[in-house]
From TrEMBL, chain A:
PANTHER family: DIAMINE N-ACETYLTRANSFERASE (PTHR10545), DIAMINE N-ACETYLTRANSFERASE 2-RELATED (PTHR10545:SF66)
UniProt-listed InterPro entries: Acyl_CoA_acyltransferase, Diverse_Substrate_AcTransf, GNAT_dom
Organism, scientific name: Scleropages formosus (Asian bonytongue)
CDD domains per record: NAT_SF
GO molecular function: N-acetyltransferase activity
Gene that this sequence comes from: SAT2
Protein name per the record: Spermidine/spermine N1-acetyltransferase family member 2a, tandem duplicate 2
Residues annotated as domain N-acetyltransferase: 1-141
One Pfam family hit: Acetyltransf_1
Family the entry assigns: Belongs to the acetyltransferase family.
SUPFAM superfamilies: Acyl-CoA N-acyltransferases (Nat)
The keyword Acyltransferase appears for this protein: yes
Keywords, comma-separated and alphabetical: Acyltransferase, Transferase
UniProtKB/TrEMBL annotation, chain B:
Ranges of residues in domain N-acetyltransferase: 3-161
Gene Ontology MF terms: N-acetyltransferase activity
Protein name as annotated: Spermidine/spermine N1-acetyltransferase family member 2b
InterPro entries: Acyl_CoA_acyltransferase (IPR016181), Diverse_Substrate_AcTransf (IPR051016), GNAT_dom (IPR000182)
Pfam families, per database record: Acetyltransf_1 (PF00583)
Keywords: Acyltransferase, Transferase
GO biological process entries: polyamine metabolic process
Family of the protein in this entry: Belongs to the acetyltransferase family.
Lineage: Eukaryota, Metazoa, Chordata, Craniata, Vertebrata
Length: 141, 173
């Protein structure tokens, strides 16, 4: 992780935020042994499909290990679906590494499908020096 | 060949819509596109746009036989990485077949990267079909990584019906 708490505050809570987030909270009597009541989160932003229109992308979904299996992850994901639909979205997308079997199984159980396996889309990324070169227009053709 | 890359305007949406359909045909999913150019106008050109778009334009003397002067586009939006921060996602990137090999694609993607940089974005993400060798080579030549092959990342999706069902189960607070 390269970003700081300050980056999150600036990028998520200014006039034109880059993301939004929801938190799962338990009452005091169920706090973790370190005293945390915030036990899970989901971070998302609005995206676009040139075929279907408005969509929502779930960047992160996490529940502390000792609080799993209680419906918290599903509640977080459902809330994002609700917020997305309220904003006119027709799709919810997210990514999971295919070796993460618990996450893959959880996801499929909720009713989604695997775009990479079924259609063959690969996730690509340009960053660091390659992105710098591209921005300067120097990339070799 | 002379061309220019510029930000799309609301009036370009009919052409963008046409090219989205052409790209869908190329991707072997000709019926994939379900939205209208009016929806593109509403979602891309209002106060809080869901996307941004660059178009590649040729002068009238190079127009296509149907009379089109918009010959390519790149549609993108801002995203966020909880590890690295501000990022960009390039949803579509397309140049009409008869205008390829002239530097238009490179100009489009370079401009997307440049705009990202101006907004302090540190990543440009996009996806490509595994059989689309020309596109994969184009991207790999520019230093892109294939995260599906290298790290096993898979894209998952809830479509409308499944999304409705999931939303119904949201915990009432």
């Amino acid at each position: 992780v390269k970003i700081t708490q300050r980056d999150l505050e600036q990028d998520g809570f200014s006039k034109n935020p880059f993301f939004q987030a929801i938190i799962a909270e338990v009452p005091e009597q169920h706090r973790s042994k370190e005293g945390h009541c915030k036990v899970g989160y989901a971070l998302y932003f609005f995206a676009y499909s040139s075929w279907k229109g408005r969509s929502v992308y779930m960047e992160d979904l996490y529940v502390m290990s000792e609080y799993r299996g209680k419906g918290i992850g599903k509640a977080l994901m459902s809330k994002i679906a609700q917020l997305g639909l309220a904003a006119g979205c027709k799709q919810l997308n997210f990514a999971v590494p295919n070796w993460n079997k618990p996450s893959v199984d959880f996801s499929l159980r909720q009713g989604c499908w695997n775009v990479t396996s079924d259609l063959g889309y690969h996730c690509m990324r340009c960053e660091g020096p390659a992105l710098e070169s591209l921005a300067r227009g120097e990339a070799k053709h | 060949m002379e061309f220019r890359v510029r930000a799309a305007t609301r009036e370009d949406c009919r052409d963008i819509s046409r090219m989205i359909r052409e790209l869908a045909v190329y991707e072997k999913m000709p019926d994939g596109m379900k939205i209208s150019h009016e929806e593109l106008e509403r979602d891309g050109f209002s106060q809080n746009p869901f996307f941004h778009c660059l178009v590649a334009e040729v002068p009238p003397q190079h127009r296509t036989k149907e009379g089109y002067t918009l010959v390519g586009y790149a549609l993108y939006f801002y995203t966020y990485s909880t590890w690295e921060g501000r990022s960009l996602y390039m949803e579509d990137f397309y140049v009409m077949p008869e205008f390829r090999g002239k530097g238009i694609g490179k100009a489009l993607i370079s401009n997307v990267a440049r705009i990202g940089k101006e907004h302090q974005c540190v990543r440009l993400n996009f996806s490509v079909l595994s059989w689309n060798t020309p596109a994969i080579n184009f991207y790999l030549n520019k230093g892109a990584q294939d995260l599906t092959t290298s790290d096993g990342w898979h894209c998952f999706r809830f479509d409308r019906e499944a999304l409705d069902k999931l939303a119904e189960e949201a915990v009432k607070q």
